[in-house]
Amino acid sequence: MPYYDKFHVLITSSNSKWEGSAVRAEIVKINCDNPEASLVKYAADQIRAGEVLGMPTDTFYGLAADPFNLRAVDRVYDIKTRSRHKPLSLLIENVDHAEELAKPLPEEFYALTRKYWPGPLTIIVRAGSRLPLKVTANTGNVALRVPSAKIPLAVVTAAAIPITATSANLSGASECTSADQVRDQLQERINIIVDGGPSPRDIASTIVDLSDEVARWRVIREGAIPAEEISRFFAQG
Question: Which one is predicted more confidently, 6 or 43?
């Protein structure tokens, strides 16, 4: 038996449109303080194989998928019932990773990342040609974050690719702060959930948009980092 089989949870549905009448969702428990290498590798391998996982981040639980796998990207949108006009945010390992995914980055990007990464700050920049248009929703922009939580960072590192980070919930529904909430809300829509315990925060990341060369920067969602703090940061130069 594979080492992860003891974490299987059976979820049944009388009329599932996803995987038939009974879907077995794997609940893979990973220690949030000291992630087990074998379980991290398993999660990373599943993502690279095209699976969409429910996974903890440093804010809410998210849907983790390979952004270069267009079928997996489609599944993320389907699982969430999310509009295809909304781009997906990505978790990455470090600033070097960002430089591989984006066009030449502005000075503001490096200033913000020196202070706030890893952490709950998502930064929107102009996407490079490497990223599929589906991920950017044809906007030409990409939202990036280096998480401070150990599990998502370990999975990103093991997978050696960025992973999607959109919240693991149905569009319009409340975000999930535990694996049980992900299972209860998404049910048969998802096959694997990484259980890293409760979310360290119950508020989303702050989003700063650096994609407009004229505006330079703007806060488009206030979250874990107050908008006023971002304003003070830029005012101080």
Answer: 43
